[in-house]
Amino acid sequence: MKRGFLKGLDLERAQIDSIMAEYGKMVTFYKSKLKELQRRYDEDERSFEAKLQEVQLVHALKLALAGKVHDAELVIGLIDKAKIELSDDGIISKGLDEQIKELQKSKSFLFVP
Question: Which is the most buried residue in 5, 13, 19, 82, by most CB within 10 A?
């Protein structure tokens, strides 16, 4: 809002000052509100992305282990997911085979013969 606009309405200087002061308070309030909402949005977006990546990884692991293990959930719990990389199409590109070989040696009962 501009003072010239208010002057054009034939308002007195004291009225214009009062309106501008209130307007300034509102602008400050809404700027801080916008900043807070943007921060929460960014936080929620990061959280959503992390959850989505976790779901995609677990889904890819279940597909990769299907028919090879007795209990996929148990085996997935034993796998270090941080070492696994997914390709752009959601397929495991590396990190699983080495871990599966180690698990087959140490916990062969989990795997279908």
Answer: 19
